[in-house]
Amino acid sequence: MTCEEMAALLVDDRTHQAPDVDAHLASCAECREVLAADARARELGRWDTVPQLPAPDGWSRLGWPRRARFGLAAAGVLAMAALAAIAVTAEVGRAIPRSDSERALPPPLRAATETEPLRASGEGPSAKAAPSGDESLVDDLVVESSAYVRREVSVRDALYGPFGDLPRWVSLPRNRSLDAPVFQKALYPIHTDLF
Amino acid sequence: VEAQLREEALLPWAGFEELVRAEQQQLLRIAWRFTQDPEESRDLVQAALADAYERRHTLKDPAVAGAWLRRILVHRAINLHRRRRVWRAIEHWLRPATQGMPAAGDSELDRSRQLEQVRAVVRDLPARQAAAFTLRYLDGLSIDEVADALRIGRGTVRVHLYRALAKVKQRLGWKEKPDDV
Predict the structure, then answer these.
(1) Measured between CB atoms, which of B41, B42, B174 is closest to A40?
(2) Closest-CA residue of chain A to B140
């Protein structure tokens, strides 16, 4: 039996008179101190008198100031939480793009392959007036090249309209076909005054 | 059975007021041992009585209603002690005590000072040790009554008491007197 186990027996009236406890006490100063402390605490407890505490007439009326304080604190916490929630919602609402129904989108353009409207709206680059030859072919080439290399195709293209705002975020990478040697060669005469 | 229990729980408890009248002084005394404050004692008892009323369907034997109320009160007191201990630990950390406790003699004034010192040490004990010490030494309950109030076994009560006593002895510098044994 360890000293702690033995000492635990000392605090119990039923066990601290056992013969093996006495034998242990004779040889263990620490356990004797525990026994002495036990006696001292008991004696001290006898001096610990409780003042007269009159019981109230109705227990339900007790503690209302504490409950009121708790209620006020809870109301304050709730108010702060509500304000924080409103602030967070407003911030998030500002960050998320609004849907088509909330905001008037700029008038959509027709599909990139349909070059005629670009020319009609004057949005496409104007071709240099060709002094001779088939002007319409060169003009078509200029407008169509412009349509190919347009950036943010998904945003501007009416074909993506039914899909909502999502294409806005997944717009296609910039088309670099104009940088290809073949295109450069084809477009070279347009950008120079060869015609 | 569950429906019956729920139905019983909703019924008013006819003998509750009578039980409260019979037990309130003892409950107030135990609550004061834990709080040392009249208002807090009343608050603690009221909270325990509210708990008891809500859990009245768990009282199987009305003959032991007093011990049942005491268990509920001690449970509340232990929870209160735990919360206070956290705050006291923070307070100690912010404002560490600089002076030790002065040794006390045998006069009445010294005894009340010793009691105050013991209470201060008990306030810093773990909740169950503090409860066991308070009920056993300050309120004078037997080991069996302490075990019943704390809902633990006699052996566990002994261990809690021994550890609490060892800490009190160490903090207050209690030494064995020659005529003690």
Answers:
(1) B174
(2) A45
Q: Note whether A53 contacts B29, CB cutoff 8 Å.
A: yes
- Condensed to tens digits (0 to 9), the pLDDT of residues B22-51 reads 888 999 999 999 998 888 898 889 888 888
Helix axes B16-35, B65-94, angle to 10 degrees: 30
Chain A residues closer than 8 Å to B12 by CB: none
3-state secondary structure chain B: CHHHHHHHHHCCCCCHHHHHHHHHHHHHHHHHHHHCCHHHHHHHHHHHHHHHHHCHHHCCCHHHHHHHHHHHHHHHHHHHHHHHHHHHHHHHHHCCCCCCCCCCCCCHHHHHHHHHHHHHHHHCCCHHHHHHHHHHHHCCCCHHHHHHHHCCCHHHHHHHHHHHHHHHHHHHCCCCCCCCC
Categorise residue A173: left if φ over 0, alpha if ψ from -120 to 50, beta otherwise. beta
Q: Are the beta carbons of B158 and A12 separated by less than 8 Å?
A: yes
Tokens of A126: 């104007």
User: Between chains, do A55 and B143 touch, taking CB under 8 Å as contact?
Assistant: no
Contacts of B110 (CB under 8 A, 6+ apart): B104
Q: What 3-state DSSP class applies to A71?
A: helix
B38, B162, B180 ranked by CB distance to A39: nearest:
B180
The residue in chain A having the minimum alpha-carbon distance to the alpha carbon of residue B46 is A59
A48 interaction partners in chain B (CB closer than 8 Å): 33, 115, 138
> What would the two tokens of residue A25 be?
């006490």
The ipTM is: 0.73
Q: Flag whether the pTM goes above 0.80.
A: no
